[in-house]
Every structure is written in structure tokens, then in C-alpha cells.
Design goal:
The protein is mostly helical and 207 residues long. It contains nine helices and no strands.
Amino acid sequence: MTVTDALLAFTFAATLLTLTPGLDTALILRTSAVEGTQKAIQAQLGINAGCLAWAAAVAFGLGALIAVSELAYNLLKWCGAAYLAWLGVLMLLNPRQRMGEVRLEGSTQNWFVRGFFGNLLNPKVGIFYVSFLPQFIPSGHSPVLWTFGLVFIHILLGTLWSGLLIGSTRRLSGLLKRQGVVQWLDRTTGAVFLLFAARLALSRRPG
């Protein structure tokens, strides 16, 4: 895989992940609608910080695994492929009927902290990074540098999407709560997850 191919493929996959309604989307929509633009921006900055924390954990752990043991990399690869396949099948066969609600109380919360810990304490973020990122690291390139670079792309996409959500809260909130839209996004993403699961299972250790 060339550098250009890796960047384009990851950007496509990360865009799908970003657009699929989830906890972060629900948090931004709710905060923007109820608390206002400033606090919604604070929540997004907290989410970004959580992504960077996961990037650091995954980057250095992944780099050590790749450098030390092909067996460890293969175990990680198969676990990631199995998780992606399982998640993809669930999303295809049982798409959500509507976007999940986020229940938050009080208007004096520190929204940066809430966004940060909401992301950091979600193990699915780490699993996604561990499962996805190795597929997009070209052979011979630094796993650590590429992990941070790819996560920055994910953060940029998330920030742009959140900006759109914040700027168009009412219209997009109604759209994302429609049963057909959420089901279509879940099924499309599920199919993509299955493709990446197969690709990950067939991949080899970089370097």
C-alpha cells in the first residue's frame, strides 16, 4: 500500500465512522441545542483530547508489539478482525432504530472534561484505533508517527462534522433521528467493517 492509498482509504473509513451517529454526535447535538455553541465547542475539544490520549496509548503499545513479536501482532490482528466482523454483522442485521440519547443533568458542567472522559472511558475508541490503524500504516514507516498522523485526520474530520452539527443543530438533529437514515448509516458502516475485517485478517506485520 502506498502512502497516498493509505491516506485515502483511512480518510474514507474515518469519514464513515465520524458520520455514523453515536455517543459523540449525540453529546454535541444535545449540548449545542440545550447549552449553546460555546459549551458544545468545549465538549468537542474534550473529545479531541480523548482521541489524542487513546492515540498515545495505542501508538506506543502498537509500536512495541510490532517491533518485538510477530506472534503478538498476529494475535492482535485476529482479535481486531474478529471484533470488526462481529460489529459489522450486528450493524447489518440489527441496525439501530434511532440515535441513542445522552442524558446529562445540570448546565454548569465542565463540558471539556465531560467530552474528554466520555471519549477516554469508551473502550470502543481504543479498540477501533487498534483494529483500524495497523491496516493503514505503509510498510517500512513508523507505526508511532503514522498512528498520531491518522488520529489527527480523524480529529480533523470529527471537528468539521461537529462544527456542522453545531451550526445546523435543529435541521441535522431531526435528520439523524429519522429511522431510515440511522439504519442506512449503520448498515453501510457494517458492510465496510466486514471488508476491513477481511483485509485485516489477510494483512502482514509492517516492517
